[in-house]
Design goal:
The complex is a heterodimer of chains A (about 575) and B (about 350). By secondary structure, chain A is mostly helical. In chain A, about 65% of the residues lie in helices and about 0% in strands. The longest helix of chain A has about 35 residues. Chain B is an alpha+beta fold. Chain B has a six-stranded mixed β-sheet with strand order 1-9-6-2-3-4. In chain B, strand 2 and strand 3 form a beta hairpin. In chain B, helix 1 packs antiparallel against helix 2 and helix 5 packs across helix 7. About 0% of the residues of chain B have low confidence. Classes of the chains: A mainly alpha (about 575), B alpha+beta (about 350).
């Protein structure tokens, strides 16, 4: 590589990267069993998006049932299956595959200047487990779907319908997929960055993927063990969890949450990355406190392993053990706070372009902060004695997962849509989508805080009539929320046909993926560029050397000459 | 080539200090109302430990509201004042600032200090709850799909339906379950424990306000979960005694192992039962041959363990009591006979069988 700057080292590996493989020509190798990370990314998004619609429909059934204190539409048994499938599908079939498999696959290799992930065939295998797992999970409705919530605590899950065993198989499978993707991403990020892209020059989205990959890779094994044991107990009567035969129900809870609390961070760290890309781009500012955001990602990932028992304060463990779990949980607020404050500081002094992704990213700041603060109320053990197992928890987790992960996902979809499809979406419809989502989301989940505090337990098909008003309020809001998703679908369906051609860099963004044409060519980069600095210095020339940028890409990005750096 | 498009800023932005003042005022008002609210959760505190929990809720509410105001109001304010004006050049950029170590130090340090304060305060309240006085009255709550039963001392039969507690009496409630995990939540007392089969969790409450309060199941337990609830009746000592007498309780019917027909037990029946009910946790070897609990082979004649695990002498009546009532201690937890579905006749058989082992 002749074009490298002084001080940028290359290994023998980078010379190999200059070789461009020919693109496959057959339909099947190109679109079905492709090993191209971008196609696999699209596949994850389409599959995950489809599951999002199904699981969202289940959510509307839940809300419709709760229109009446006696259950408006279905029996309690059916209701239990519906909400259990809603939770399981949203966590394992929607958010985790979308943030890692979807955005991670499409964006991450582009951002580090690689041609593909480290193990493309592994990537292909990991993807194809996902639709198979999804089909197994959803087809369990035919035999009686799992009905004990997404947590499936034994012994009640041992009494569950036959579909509970299929649930074990499906989640086990998606767990393998997620572990493989984790390994793949760790190796890709560690070994395949463009020359000169040191760890502290990586885009922050890549940092988010790095933290998440580590979590998926390590934590999922605990879930796999727990699921295998549950499956064996249900199918062959091996007594792991049933106390009647010497098992321990609390064992499941420890193993389940040892995975499922880190899973919360699996679902949110990549979204932190999306926010860290969107905010500087549309503020036209370097992201504030790059290193602190990156390090706090790692801190959250590490601390996330030692807080799982805060889900179990009422389950029965040695009382003093509750205190360290409470304190470590509270400590996680420090790195999270650093991120929130750094993002606010990124807005400060910006030249803010209020596009749809920017709206979703700032909306995320507000809703996620609210979810984080209610997390404090749950972490404090004495308050958890009151709030555990109530609608307060439901409110908290939806503020974190919908107000956090899903809002961030929407920001990411709007942000990278032009890169993925080469076309723009309709900005006005985007505004409608955001404002309806923001208002209806709060209308749906805000009342659940006080419903829970006042005495409404979660996972109930019937409830006390005194709670009806706010349940109806939440249900109507949830219909508006569903309507906002329809606007989103309509927007993108029309964008495919009649959207404006986006060009390589419609946002004036500066990370590597915006330097090449939209959608990117099969080989991504004609030549692998050398990287000299973090990407976010809008006042400086682009920090890439040897990049054969697509026509029009450089034009949209500022240079030192066109943008003198203002001082305070 | 574009001209210089961003004015250098020499202050924090237009209106920064008025907005900051606004945040302080709004947060102060919200904190004031939170901290002085008699019922911050919206429910009457009907007994210990509810007041302690409410105090923590008020404190966290004030802190949470303040942080929420800071994040939300500044975010909206920055979004408005730093929005790109319509007439700005398309390539306008913002202030190119990367970090501000002093600012970052403070927004790391202040939350850290706040968390130390919160952790200490939560721990204090937690200790208050752990040390809530109990034991004047001890009640066992046992759940099943889908209901609760309550066992009172000196009451031969468990009480189904409502739970009754006398006013101002420090009460310990041991909870467990017969089948799957249930929840035991008294919202007005701000206290809850999971009822886990094979495990005994303990709550301590002192009811201070007479009334009828819901007891609600908070762990999903099956199709009947939504309607699984009962009522806690808190009543004066006289009313409670009256109710207690109606349930057949009196001072004379002794608790413990009373009513167990020890003389009628047979070794063979006990041996069969031991294999079914006990051998998962207990061997017939010496004390040290533990599975989950100690070996029971020499329970009546072990020089190394002259006392039973509960400190009593190794008489047949005392062994029968442990089987009947279960045991909880450093060595582990054994469910009661009711949990294990062992009748008094069964206990007699088991004790006779154990006695036969020790004689060898």
């Amino acid at each position: 590589m002749a074009t490298l700057a002084p001080g940028v080292k290359t290994g023998p590996y980078h010379a190999v990267l200059d070789h461009i493989h020919p693109e496959p020509t057959s339909f099947i190798r190109k679109y079905i069993f492709s090993i191209d990370h971008k196609v696999i990314g699209y596949q994850y998004m389409i599959t995950g998006g489809l599951f999002f619609l199904i699981a969202g429909l289940l959510a509307e059934l839940i809300r419709t049932q709760l229109l009446s204190p006696n259950g408006a539409i279905v029996s309690a048994a059916t209701y239990n299956q519906i909400y259990s499938m809603h939770g399981s599908a949203m966590v394992w079939m929607v958010i985790i595959p979308l943030v890692t498999g979807g955005f991670g696959n499409f964006v991450m290799p582009l951002q580090i200047g690689a041609r593909d992930v480290a193990f493309p065939w592994l990537n292909l295998a990991a993807f194809w487990m996902f639709p198979v797992a999804g089909v197994i999970l959803f087809s369990s409705f035919l035999w009686g779907a799992p009905d004990a919530g997404w947590t499936e605590y034994p012994p009640v899950s041992l009494q569950g319908p036959p579909g509970t065993s299929m649930w074990c198989v499906a989640i086990f499978l998606i767990g393998i997929s997620s572990t493989l993707t984790g390994i793949n991403f760790i190796v890709t990020i560690y070994k395949m960055r463009a020359p000169g892209m040191t760890l502290t020059r990586m885009p922050l989205f890549v940092w988010g993927q790095f933290g998440t990959a580590g979590l998926s890779f390590i934590a999922t094994t605990a879930l796999a063990g727990a699921l295998l044991a549950l499956f064996l107990e249900r199918t062959f009567g091996v007594p792991f969890y049933d106390p009647k035969h010497g098992g321990s129900p609390v064992l499941w809870q420890h193993m389940f949450w040892f995975y499922s609390h880190p899973a919360v961070y699996i679902m949110i760290l990549p979204v932190f990355g999306i926010i860290s890309e969107v905010l500087p781009t549309f503020s036209r500012k370097p992201v504030f406190g790059y290193k602190m955001i990156a390090f706090s990602t790692v801190a959250i990932a590490l601390l996330g392993f030692s807080v799982w028992a805060h889900h179990m304060f009422t389950s029965g463990m040695v009382p003093w053990l509750q205190l360290p779990f409470m304190i470590i949980t509270m400590v996680i607020a420090v790195p999270t706070g650093i991120k929130i404050f750094s993002w606010m500081a990124t807005l400060w002094g910006g030249s803010i372009h209020w596009t749809t992704p920017m709206l979703f990213a700032t909306g995320f700041l507000i809703t996620f902060t609210c979810g984080g603060l209610t997390g404090f109320f749950l972490a404090a053990v004495p308050l958890d004695y009151h709030e555990h197992g109530t609608y307060f928890v439901v409110a908290h987790l939806h503020y974190v997962l919908y107000g956090g992960s899903v809002m961030g996902l929407f920001a990411g979809i709007y942000y990278w849509w032009p890169k993925m499809t080469g076309r723009m979406y309709n900005e006005v419809l985007g505004y409608w989508h955001f404002w309806l989502t923001f208002i209806a989301f709060n209308g749906t989940f805000m009342p659940m805080h006080w419903l829970g505090l006042l005495g409404m337990p979660r996972r109930v098909a019937l409830y006390d009539p005194q709670f009806q008003f706010w349940n109806v309020f939440a249900t109507i809001s949830s219909y508006v929320l569903a309507g906002s998703v329809l606007i989103f679908l309509y927007n993108f369906a029309t964008s495919f046909r009649s959207g404006k051609i986006a060009g390589p860099n419609p946002w004036g963004a500066r990370t590597l993926e915006w330097m090449i044409s939209s959608p990117p060519p099969y080989y991504n980069y004609k030549k692998i560029p050398a990287v000299l600095a973090t990407p976010y210095d809008f006042g400086n020339p682009l920090p890439y050397i040897g990049l054969e940028a697509a026509a029009g890409a450089e034009e949209a990005t500022p240079t030192a000459a066109s943008h003198p750096v203002p001082t305070l | 080539m574009a001209q210089r498009v961003v004015k250098p800023r020499t202050n924090l932005g237009p209106g920064f200090w008025p907005v900051t003042a606004f945040i302080i005022v709004v947060s102060a008002i919200m904190s004031y109302f939170t901290l002085t609210s008699p019922w911050p959760i919206g429910l009457i505190p009907a007994g210990e430990p509810a007041p302690a929990t409410d105090a923590l809720f008020r404190f966290l509410g004030a802190v949470g509201a303040t942080i929420f105001n800071i994040v939300t109001i500044y975010t909206i304010y920055f979004g408005i004042v730093f929005a790109k004006p319509k007439n700005a050049l398309p390539n306008a950029i913002g202030v190119q600032i990367h970090d501000a170590p002093v600012l970052e130090f403070w927004w790391t340090a202040i939350p850290t200090i706040l968390i130390v304060v919160l952790a200490i305060y939560s721990t204090k309240i937690w200790l208050d709850i752990q040390n809530t006085q109990g034991d004047v009255l001890t009640v066992e709550a046992i759940s099943y799909q889908y209901g609760y039963q309550f066992r009172y001392p000196r009451l031969a039969q468990p009480v189904s339906g409502e739970m009754h507690l006398p006013l101002n009496t420090p009460t310990t409630i041991h909870v467990t379950s017969r089948d799957v995990i249930h929840g035991f939540w008294i919202p007005e007392m701000r206290i809850k424990a999971d009822m886990v089969p094979g495990l005994i969790n303990t709550l301590r409450v002192t009811p201070t306000v007479p009334g009828r309060y819901p007891i609600i199941c908070t762990e999903f337990c099956g199709v009947g979960h939504g309607s699984m609830k009962t009522t806690l009746v808190v009543q004066s000592q006289q009313d409670f005694s009256k109710w207690f007498a109606q349930q057949g309780g009196s001072q004379s019917s002794a608790g413990g192992g009373g009513g167990i027909p020890l003389s009628t037990g047979t070794v063979d029946a006990g041996k069969v039962l031991f294999g079914q009910k006990c051998s998962a946790c207990h061997s017939t070897g010496p004390f040290s041959q533990k599975i989950v609990g100690p070996g029971l082979g020499q329970i009546f004649s072990d020089p190394a363990h002259p006392k039973l695990v509960n400190g009593s002498d190794p008489t047949t009546q005392n062994v029968a009591n442990i089987v009947k009532n279960g045991f909880q201690g450093d060595i582990g937890t054994m469910p009661s006979a009711q949990m294990n579905a062992i009748s008094n006749k069964d206990i007699a058989n088991l004790v006779v069988y154990l006695a036969s082992l020790s004689k060898k």
